[in-house]
């Protein structure tokens, strides 16, 4: 079947089998390998992308369900020359080690901050419950999200 | 994932017809349970009927007597609804505790209650608030809706359209999440309908249920310690690696006590 | 540590500076290159046939229906692999029993042919043109098994049905260390004996990137390239060549690109990468496999799983007289690559801890069960040792009503006693245990604990505090010692510093980064030493085609051993640079000084920059080529003289809700002595991650098999991974005693948190409840029951 959608601002039309997951469309059909798959039970959040601005697990959606929507992946939020504030904060705060959970973590964190006019450490920790990191112990991820949140206009308490 | 035919109808009638016409069809709403099930090849339906494009299934309609939530309304919308927060804040709080942020952006109330997962959160509200389930064929009162483990009163091809919640004077939900999956090991919703108490319990048994003995004790005295004297029969409670039935019974008691404390605070 | 990060004396990018990581740019923009991100032309896909039984005979494999599935190319089995002459997966460390006999081990074919011995053991593979086709094909294979009685329990393994004909009582070895007679004598004169029975729970490593491999056979020159998620690609090449007999070493190239975490689990040589390479030769196309998480749970090597009885003898003053430890260690169904060494040489040797205990005797039964192989997982043996020592010391303090800190102080090895020979083989080179203890006590506000406990009690909560004064042996390892103890490989590391004609530097290391930040830390070392801007230094790792040799990353060895190799190579570069500069500047090499990128003739104004010397090295216009070769590229192998001994104190303060058994970590302090630190920011991150895994072990994680050998915690729905809201912010700090025997003075930091934290947490939990022990993980139900006195 044909799925038409917008990915990182670009209109795309892709022929896929009906049982293709959104993450498979991104990784295998569009070559956007920044979105990762870390589990098969929708727990780890490594596959998180934005669909119409909201974070979703792209391993838990059919590509067909994304038809007509706007998808943003880690590749679509910034470049090495112009990092998104969340990307910059992750580097500055050493919020990543192996980097595998990082794209999903950043995409979740952006959604969290956008929907939180006010944030504190506990809210960030709770807000990241859909993403698993095995390397960092989250300490620096929390610091990075709070740092970026300030930059993005949230109030930090 | 096994292969299947995918349909995306725009009306309820078309959805029902597709389901009737195919060999082994299933409805897809938020997909937060169905897609993982398909991925693990634990189900092999011939057809998936996506309700995502069906008109009129999503939305929250509020007045001071009742709240109507469309089946395709996402948990995140319920959690963030300002209108809902004014009349039935417990539903916002409950929806905000389902799964995680990404799951709440996709999962729907209709999908949740159609699945009747014993550890899902919404069933506690459906039971505890005495909701009415509206389908494309009829209305079903909460008490006769949940039948057993992953079993509801829905007939094959019947589609949940909306859930109607009466507005209590006050209500509170307390949940003990499974630390791994974040599903409810035990969740208790206590609602006060002007002197008449209802208690809905999820997580503990094969499906959500009304705790009549807790209601009786709380109707006698609406105080946290009122639950302490209540015998909690856990013979049919779930017993798994996360909690024995005995521990679940304790959790039901403690969550009930804490819900009452929050309710009267 | 914040003070170090902002110390103006530290050069901005040099040793000691918190340089932001070089590798991060690609990871935060989605440009990382992990194995599953790679694809080869003509690639096909593998789906493994895995045993549904813990122990079964493979009666027959019927592939007829599978071959009918659209897109299925082949079904290959263990019998075919054996017929093709592929050998077994070896265990690289020979442990001897106390009676002098060699450890016993069953053959471990990459694909089982006759018998399967754990759920998830691969016995065949289906190759398809798509992942879906391969998996559907695998579902269609009809295999007849004869199910056999399985052995699951660690404690009862020696008394259960015998799994292998050549392994009586399912015991691989009965290993001992220490002086039994001296220990018995110590107990005979003890004023007090503390006894403790504890278990160390089975853990599943769960690096977030599932294992993956692509086997590419090149028909034209009969060579293989294998892209794989490995912590040590050269070791994989060695094993696949020498033991598995896949191909001669020079016909094998192993590439471990970006790897998404390892924690030990990606050290080992697994059936799957072996199989995809072999299948690629049979099929004539590249074969790719990426584990689903549920496969990872079943087939990654697990960690820990000990049952231990320990006794500590003390005199009337609380001096430790002797320690006696008996452990049963579950090895799983086969001996994985380093499995035998973990509960022996990496465990028994650490039982002295930070203390002067004069007599220690440890006996370890390594047993086989019908469960996934158990091997090194972050800490590997040392968390188990620390757990025994620090739990029993704390228990003794409670029994004797001595402040647990005071009891430790009475028994610490003192700074003036180094080098210190322990009764369990190791010689600690340096340390100051009281310094880290004191700093940690200050950070946790120990004197305010009583008031905080009272405040918790007023809210109906139980507060407890727990200590863990750990030591670890890292920087594996002196090859002479390791091989004498049974290691099948040397444990040095190699490095190459290749200065390019324009003065930029390419650094090759046999060490491997899968999150540790080598591309930054190693660049700092070389940049600092050569005075070359860090952006002009590139670190290359993870490719046997580009790097001469290497032993990879594990045991917190990368900087201590791999970094030291680079120091050595860098020194050679400088020495050669001095020779070149001497000719160019018409002086003698001995008369040339090198400092911050400048070669200068002593007591003169004549000098050349590093870049000028590099250019001259490749444009040899002015020096005699019969005496000095052109080029400026040097290699070094560094073999450590001793282990390094990071040590420190971790303190946990917990608050328990007794009604629901939930343990909240109110505060966690870690003060570690890692010797000198190259990049404090990275070191701090390593500590955080280790602590999180230690807390995970103590409170959340548990690999559980049921009595039939089915893994019942086989997904993230049931195996509880630590999330952000399970953990607190960590308060971390360091003290420094420089390692005495490597050129950087470093000790290693990768595992400390995982080693120290479980004992700190469990000491705090048991303190809060007032019980001797709660089994790890201290789940809500276990804690609830303990609070009720059950």
Could you characterize what this model shows?
The complex is a heterotrimer of chains A (157), B (265) and C (790). Chain A has 157 residues and is α/β, with parallel strands linked by helices. Helix content of chain A is 32%, strand content 17%. Chain A has a five-stranded mixed sheet with strand order 2-1-5-3-4, with helices on both faces. In chain A, strands 6-7 form a two-stranded parallel sheet. The radius of gyration of chain A is 15 Å and the shape is globular. The termini of chain A are far apart. In chain A, 66% of the residues are buried. The mean pLDDT of chain A is 97. With 265 residues, chain B is α+β, with helices and mostly antiparallel strands. Chain B contains ten helices and 14 strands. In chain B, strands 4-5-10-6-7 form a five-stranded antiparallel sheet. In chain B, strand 11 and strand 12 form a beta hairpin. The longest helix of chain B has 20 residues, at 245-264. The radius of gyration of chain B is 18 Å and the shape is globular. Chain C has 790 residues and is an alpha+beta fold. In chain C, helix 7 links the parallel strand 10 and strand 11. Chains A and C meet through helix 2, helix 3, helix 4 and helix 5 of A and helix 2 and helix 18 of C.
């Amino acid at each position: 079947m044909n799925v038409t959608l917008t990915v990182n601002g670009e209109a795309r039309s892709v022929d896929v089998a009906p049982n293709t997951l959104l993450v498979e469309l991104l990784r295998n059909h569009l070559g956007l390998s920044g979105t990762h798959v870390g589990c098969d039970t929708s727990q780890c959040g490594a596959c998180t992308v934005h669909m119409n601005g909201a974070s979703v697990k792209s391993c838990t959606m059919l590509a067909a369900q994304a038809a007509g929507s706007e998808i943003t992946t880690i590749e679509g939020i910034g470049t090495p020359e112009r990092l998104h504030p969340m990307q910059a904060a992750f580097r500055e705060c050493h919020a990543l080690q192996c980097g595998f959970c990082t794209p999903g973590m950043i995409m979740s964190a952006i959604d969290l901050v956008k929907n939180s006019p006010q944030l504190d450490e506990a809210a960030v920790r709770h807000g990241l419950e859909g993403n698993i990191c095995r390397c960092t112990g989250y300490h620096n991820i929390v610091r990075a999200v709070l740092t970026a949140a300030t930059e993005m206009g949230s109030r930090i308490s | 994932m096994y292969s299947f035919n995918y349909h995306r109808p725009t009306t309820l009638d078309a959805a029902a017809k597709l389901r009737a016409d195919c060999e082994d069809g299933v409805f897809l709403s938020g997909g937060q349970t169905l897609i993982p099930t398909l991925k693990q090849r634990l189900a092999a339906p011939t057809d998936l009927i996506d309700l995502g494009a069906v008109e009129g299934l999503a939305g929250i309609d509020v007045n001071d007597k009742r709240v109507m939530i469309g089946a395709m309304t996402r948990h995140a919308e319920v959690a963030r609804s300002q209108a809902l927060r004014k009349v039935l804040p417990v539903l916002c709080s409950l929806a905000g505790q389902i799964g995680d942020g990404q799951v709440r952006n996709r999962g729907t109330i209709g999908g949740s209650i159609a699945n009747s997962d014993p550890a899902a959160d919404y069933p506690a509200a459906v039971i505890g608030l005495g909701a009415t389930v509206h389908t494309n064929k009829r209305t079903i009162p909460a008490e006769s809706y949940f039948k057993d483990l992953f079993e509801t009163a829905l007939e094959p091809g019947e589609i949940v359209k909306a859930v109607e919640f009466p507005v209590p004077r006050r209500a509170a939900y307390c949940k003990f999440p499974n630390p791994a999956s974040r599903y409810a090991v035990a969740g208790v919703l206590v609602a006060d309908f002007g002197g008449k108490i209802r208690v809905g319990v999820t997580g503990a048994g094969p499906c959500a249920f009304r705790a009549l003995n807790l209601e009786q004790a709380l109707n006698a005295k609406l105080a946290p310690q009122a639950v302490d004297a209540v015998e909690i029969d856990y013979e049919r409670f779930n017993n798994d690696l996360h909690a024995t039935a005995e521990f679940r019974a304790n959790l039901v008691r403690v969550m009930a006590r804490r819900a009452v404390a929050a309710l009267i605070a | 540590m914040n003070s170090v990060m902002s110390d103006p004396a530290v050069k901005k990018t040099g040793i000691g500076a918190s340089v932001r990581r070089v590798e991060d740019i690609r990871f935060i923009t989605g440009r990382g290159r992990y194995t599953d991100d790679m694809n080869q032309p003509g690639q096909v896909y593998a789906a493994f046939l895995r045993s549904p039984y813990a122990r079964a005979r493979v009666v027959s494999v019927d592939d007829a229906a599978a071959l009918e599935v659209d897109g299925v190319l082949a079904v290959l089995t263990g019998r075919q692999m054996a017929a093709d002459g592929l050998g077994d997966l070896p265990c690289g460390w020979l442990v001897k029993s106390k009676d002098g006999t060699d450890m016993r081990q069953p053959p471990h074919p990459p694909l089982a042919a006759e018998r399967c011995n754990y759920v998830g053991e691969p016995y065949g593979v289906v190759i398809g043109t798509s992942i879906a086709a391969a998996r559907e094909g695998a579902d269609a294979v009809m295999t007849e098994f004869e199910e056999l009685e399985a052995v699951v329990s660690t404690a009862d393994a020696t008394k259960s049905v015998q799994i292998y004909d050549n392994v009586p009582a399912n015991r691989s070895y009965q290993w001992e260390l220490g002086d039994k007679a001296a220990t018995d004598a110590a107990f005979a004169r003890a004023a007090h004996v503390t006894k403790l029975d504890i278990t160390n729970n089975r853990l599943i490593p769960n690096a977030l990137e599932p294992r993956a491999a692509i086997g590419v056979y090149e028909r034209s020159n009969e060579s293989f390239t294998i892209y794989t998620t490995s912590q040590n690609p050269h070791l994989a090449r060695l094993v696949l060549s020498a033991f598995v007999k896949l191909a001669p070493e020079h016909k094998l190239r192993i590439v471990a690109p970006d790897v998404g975490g390892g924690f030990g689990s990606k050290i080992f040589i697994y059936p799957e990468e072996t199989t995809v390479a072999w299948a690629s030769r049979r099929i004539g196309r590249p074969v790719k496999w990426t584990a689903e998480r549920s496969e990872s749970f079943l087939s990654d090597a697990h960690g820990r799983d000990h049952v231990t009885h320990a006794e500590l003898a003390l005199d009337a003053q609380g001096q430790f007289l002797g320690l006696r430890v008996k452990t049963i260690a579950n090895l799983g169904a086969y001996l994985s690559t380093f499995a035998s060494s973990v509960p022996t040489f990496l465990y028994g040797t650490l039982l002295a801890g930070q203390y002067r205990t004069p007599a220690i005797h440890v006996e370890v039964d390594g047993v086989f069960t019908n469960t996934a192989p158990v091997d090194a997982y972050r800490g590997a043996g040392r968390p188990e040792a620390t757990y025994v020592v620090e739990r029993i010391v704390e228990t003794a303090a409670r029994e004797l009503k001595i402040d647990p800190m005071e009891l430790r102080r009475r028994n610490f090895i003192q700074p003036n006693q180094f080098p210190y020979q322990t009764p369990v083989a190791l010689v600690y080179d340096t340390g100051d245990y009281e310094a880290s203890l004191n700093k940690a006590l200050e950070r946790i506000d120990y004197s305010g604990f009583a008031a905080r406990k009272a405040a918790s009690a007023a809210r109906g909560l139980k507060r407890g505090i727990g200590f863990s004064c750990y030591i670890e042996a890292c920087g594996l390892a002196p090859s002479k010692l390791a091989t004498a103890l049974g290691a099948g490989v040397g444990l040095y590391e190699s490095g190459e510093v290749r200065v390019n004609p324009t003065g930029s530097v390419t650094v090759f290391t046999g060490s491997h980064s899968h999150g540790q930040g080598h591309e930054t830390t190693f660049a700092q070392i070389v940049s600092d030493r050569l005075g070359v801007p860090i952006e002009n230094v590139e670190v290359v790792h993870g490719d046997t085609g580009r790097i001469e040799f290497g032993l990879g990353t594990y045991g917190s060895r990368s900087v201590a051993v791999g970094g030291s190799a680079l120091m050595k190579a860098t020194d050679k570069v400088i020495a050669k640079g001095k020779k070149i500069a001497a000719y160019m500047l018409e002086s003698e090499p001995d008369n040339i000084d090198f400092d911050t990128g400048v070669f200068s003739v002593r007591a003169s104004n004549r000098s050349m920059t590093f870049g000028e010397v590099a250019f001259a090295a490749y444009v040899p216009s002015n020096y005699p080529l019969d005496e000095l070769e052109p080029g400026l590229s040097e290699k070094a192998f560094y073999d450590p003289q001793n282990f390094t001994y990071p040590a420190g104190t971790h303190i946990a303060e917990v608050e328990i809700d007794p009604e629901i058994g939930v343990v909240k970590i109110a505060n966690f302090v870690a003060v570690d002595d890692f010797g000198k630190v190259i990049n404090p920011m990275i070191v701090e991150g390593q500590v955080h991650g280790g602590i999180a895994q230690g807390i995970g072990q103590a409170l959340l994680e548990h690999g559980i098999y049921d009595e039939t050998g089915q893994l019942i915690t086989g997904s993230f729905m049931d195996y509880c991974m630590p999330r952000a809201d399970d953990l607190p912010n960590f308060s971390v700090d360091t003290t420094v005693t420089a390692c005495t025997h490597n050129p950087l003075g470093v000790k290693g930091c990768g595992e400390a948190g995982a080693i120290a934290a479980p004992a700190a947490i469990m000491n705090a939990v048991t303190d809060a409840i007032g019980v001797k022990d709660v089994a790890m993980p201290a789940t809500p139900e276990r804690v609830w029951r303990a609070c009720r006195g059950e």
